[in-house]
Amino acid sequence: MKVQTPKPFMFEEGERAVLLLHGFTGHSGDVRMLGRFLQRKGYTTYAPIYRGHGKDPEHLMEGDAEKWWIDVKEAYQMLKDKGYKKIAIAGLSLGGVLGLKLSYSFPVQGMIAMCTPMILDENHRLDAGFRYYAGQYKKAEKKSEAEIKLEVEQLIEDSNPLFAEITDLITEVKQELDTIYTPTFVVQAEDDKIINPKSANYIFDNIEADQKKIEWYENAGHAITLGPKRNILHQDIYQFLETLDWD
User: Which active-site residues does the annotation give?
Assistant: First the structure.
C-alpha cells in the first residue's frame, strides 16, 4: 500500500509567527487545521516534521529525543532567519514538551501546551500510544492479524531505548518548569487516554509565568487539534495569542 508522505507546511500571512509542533508518531497534519485557522486570523504558521515521523512506524528509530530537539531548534531559527522577530509556540503532546523546552531556552512570545505529558504511570505509558499507532498503520497495509501482532511486538522491543530517551526528556523539562516566565496557555482534554490529564495541572502550577491560563475540554480526545472540540480550541488559542505583547 502506498501511503502519501506528509510534508512540513508554512502559511505566511502577518508578522506574528506561530511555530506548530506535532506529537510523537504524528506529523504536520496534526496541526494543519490550526495553522490554516491562524493564517486566516493574520498569523504566519510553520509546522516542521521531526526526523523519522510521517512515515511507517519503523522509521521512528531514525530519530531520537536529541535529534527532535535539534529539528525544533532549526525550525525556530528558520523563522528567525526569515525575519520573524517574535514567535509563539503551540505544541501537541511531545510537541508541547519540546515547546516548553524552547520556552526556557530561547526568547518565545507565548507558549501553548496541548495535552502535554509530565506524569507517566502504568495507566499512561509511552508505548501504549505507539502500539496503537503501529497496529493501525499495519492494518491499513492489509496485513494479517498474526503479522501485525508479530511486527508490532518487535517494534515495541526495538523502541525501548527511544521510550527511555523520551522519558528522560520529559523529566528534564519537568525539572525546568519553574524557569519558564513565558506567557503560557495549558490545554487539556478531560478524556485523554494517552497521557495522565494531571500533567496539565502540574505544568500550570509549576511554571513561573505571571500570565498563564488553563482550559479543560470535555470529550475532546488526546489528539485535541483533530477532535470534536477543535473549533472551540482554535478560537481559544487565537484569543490567547491576541493577549500577547507583539509590539
Answer: 93, 192, 222
CB proximity list for 10: less than 8 A, separation 6 or greater: 44, 45, 46, 47
This prediction's pTM? 0.93
Q: At what angle do helices 230-242 and 32-40 cross, to 10 degrees?
A: 50
> What is d(CA 112, CA 185) in angstroms, rounded to the nearest whole number?
5
Separation between Cα atoms, residue 63 and residue 52, nearest integer Å:
5
CA atoms within 13 A on the CB side of 172: 17
* Alpha-helix residue ranges (DSSP H) falling in the chain: 32-40, 65-81, 94-105, 126-140, 145-158, 160-176, 198-206, 230-242
Show Cβ contacts of residue 209 under 8 Å, excluding neighbours closer than 6 positions: 180, 181, 182, 183, 184
Instruction: Give the integer Cα–Cα distance in Å for 172 and 122.
Output: 20
- The full set of domain ranges for the chain reads 9-242
According to the model, what pLDDT value does residue 125 have? 67
Find residue 117's DSSP bridge partners. Answer: none
Burial 181-198 (b: 16+ CB within 10 A, else e): ebbbbbbbbeebebbbbe
The C-alpha cell of 10 is what?
508554512
CATH architecture under which domain 9-242 falls: 3-Layer(aba) Sandwich (3.40)
Helix, strand, or coil (residue 65): helix
Supply the pLDDT for residue 141: 80
Q: Which residues of the chain have pLDDT under 50?
A: 1
Cell match 496503537: residue? 132
